Every structure is written in C-alpha cells, then in structure tokens.
Amino acid sequence: METILSIGIDIGTSTTSMVMSRFLFENTASHFTIPRISIIEKRVMYRSKIYLTPFRSDGLIDIEKLKEILSVEYKNAGITPKDIETGAVIITGESSRKENAKLVTETMSMLAGDFVVASAGPDLESIIAGKGSGAYQFSIDNNCAVVNLDIGGGTTNIAAFKSGEITAKGCFNIGGRLITYNNEQRVTYISPSIKPIIEDIGIDIRSGTKITEENIVKICDTMAEVLVQAVTNNNKNHLAFVGADLYSLMETKESACFKQESMPDYICFSGGVAEAIYNPDIDPYQYNDIGIFLARSISKSRLCKDFNIYQAKETIRATVIGAGSYTTRVSGSTISFSESMIFPLKNLPAFVVGESIEKECMEGISDSYKKECKWFMEQTNAEKIIFCFRKVKNPSYNEVCNIAKVVSEAASCNLEENIPLLVLTEDDFAKSLGQILHRFIGNMRKIVCIDGIKVDSNDYVDIGKPLMNGIAIPVVVKTLIYG
What we know:
eight-stranded mixed sheet; 21 strands
C-alpha cells in the first residue's frame, strides 16, 4: 500500500477555502492477474477556515492576499508544499471571469505543490461539486438518478448522476452575490449576468438606489424558475414561466447545455446558498447580498415541492472537497513510459478524434489522422499534446501495430524532435502500444503510454509521478476556461 497527500483549493465568487485529503492506494488484483492499482480510501485530513475571496480596489483578485491565506493554512495544517503530491486549484463563478484569473490559478498551483493543477471551467466544477456534496456516491449506493445544484455567489453548477454515471452537466448565471448592497440597503454592485432578468421583469434597480424586498423576491423567484426549467427540461407537468430567450441568456457561455433524458429521483443542493435552503431561519440581510432570498425562492419552488431532497454531506465546501478528493484518477496497470521521462507533465491538450478516424487508425490509414493532428496543433498552439483513443476496444496485435504506426507518423509530422510522444487510451492496451512505439521510433523520443482514463474533446491532462514502483500513474483530467 502507498499513501499520498492531496490538496483542494476553491477560489469562488464569495469565498475561498482549502482542504487536505489523504489517498490510500493498493493493488486490488489477485496474485495471478495483472496488477490493478486503486484508490481504496480518501480521507479529509484538514479543513481550512472559509475566507471571503480577496479582491483589489480595481476589482481583480488579490493574489498576494491569497498567498497569505495559503501560507497561514499550510502552517496551521503542519504541511509544506513538498508534502503535497496531487490536488487542484479551482477558480469558480465570477472569479473565473476576472482578467487575472489564469495568473491566479497558475500562481496558486505552483505555490501549493509539485503536482497541484490549475483548472477553471463550469462543467468541471459541476462534476466535482456533485462528487464533493455526496450526490455522486448517493446515486451509486441507491442505484438512482440525482441532480446536484451547486449554488454559489456567481453561478449555479448543475450535474446529473445516474448510478454513478454523469448524464448531464451545465451552468447558469444564478448566484447569491450577483447583487450586493450596503447596510442602508443601497445597491453597491449589479453583475452584468443578472441584467437579463432585471430587464425581463421590468424593475428599476441601479447602483446607488435603495433596494426593496419586493424587487429582490421578484428577481430571486425568476432565478429559481430558471433552475426549475433546467432540471425539468420543460416537462409538461413542470412548466416554468421563464421564456426561452431569458433561459438561454442565463446559461453560462462556456458551459454545456444541461439536458436530461428523464426526471431525477432526487435533488441535492450544495454551495453557499444551500446552507440557507437547509437552514431557512437565517437573517436574509445578513450578508448584504441576495443569497438568502434566493435560497427562500428555491425552497418554495417546485424543486423542493415536487422532488425528493437528498441533503448534501457538504454544502459550502462541496467544490473544495471535490477538488481535493475527486480530481485525481489512477491509470491502468498496463502502462509504458521511458525511464528517463521527467514528471509531472501539465496542461496537455487532449487530441481526440471521432470513431471513424479511430477505425482508420486501426487499419493503418493515417491521412485523416495526420490532417486532424495538424489542425489541432494550430488551434491549441501547444508544444506538447496527448494522443487519445476512446473507442478502441480489445484491439488485435496487428491493430495495435497500426495505431502505433499512425501515431508515430502524426508525431513525426507535427511535433518538434525533442518533444515526448504521449498517448492515452481508455482501454487497457497502453503497455503493448508503448512497446511497439519504441520499435518504431527507437530513442528519437521519450514515450509515455497510459490507459484506463476517460477524456473528452477540450479536456486537458496532467500526469504525475509514477506510483507503486512504476506500475500506475496519477492523472488529472480537467478543463481550462477563463472568462
């Protein structure tokens, strides 16, 4: 058995927090089969205080204050960056739209540890929040469909799980700090993302004006109905009153379209606003924003009236728990890598092609694959990429040889001579593929072939240092989307 320490840092619209988790790895295969390294336990070892996300006077995120927060919490936990072996810094909601968001996550990930990855993007946040809240595991344990709504300060991330499978994900510009006000209840901030609702319902609200409870309730009731419409897919028994134009305007631009095939068995709420959904007696003016009012609107909506509610194990910490405990995966055990390869490898764009081109690769036909690779390199402007195969299942020896031939040709045409050849397969044939690639290219390039990992188009892959005497590798699949 082997253990590693993982960190999760969530820099959100309203709050910033950190957790540290310990992973226990073990070979779960029998003595007579190929080794299978699995994470058999994930335990949260330390939870930081929850801080207000620091912003500078110009509205950008204050990197120096974030550094101070990280330094204090590392000291309190008795941990140094050298002790951290994996994890993720996630920037979420309105924070991800700030001009310095990319610099913030990259700086924090470098300070946090050697293989702590920087990530941003609403779809990834939806998934890890759903895992951190407990909704994902609940769907497995109860063989049911659960929709998790992670409602923060700037956005609501939605993920649907059915018996542990992710069936839908998306994000909406709905959150508790899209409007803020001072102690005199005069508006201090209105997010541009909430203006479609303000215009749709026809109320006069501007910075400096005194806000009324009636207007807040109208805005929050409309936001709640957008979420009803998202979860119910306009089901005839659950018709919402918001129009299609307003609904589309409230979808977060970078997110997937949230679409389910059937109604969920349970609804789960996480995020800061969820605290007030589960605990309705909080003073609505306590935080000088509309978050508590939004919670009340959701509580009286059809989301809470027409569905079973699964109470999240984590609410405000769901994303940070997910970042620290659910972003890292372990490769299959049939892997291959050059002994001189230096890890970790970060921010590798996943080169994914369609099933028809994968079939051509299995037949040794390389023209389309090389053309796609050239286009992908131009689009990403990346020096390194990772060649990914998703639909190749149980290939024959000849088919693996053909794939190796096509990949080596594509690499020769598109990669500089000193760039390693990196390949990821969903099915377990990376070891044989790596051995054949070595025959094709010899010592011209370093090679890494890993398997057992699922990726999609637009994903990025980070590869950590090998574990368990080199028979498995930690991998993080992520998105990198900034405002």
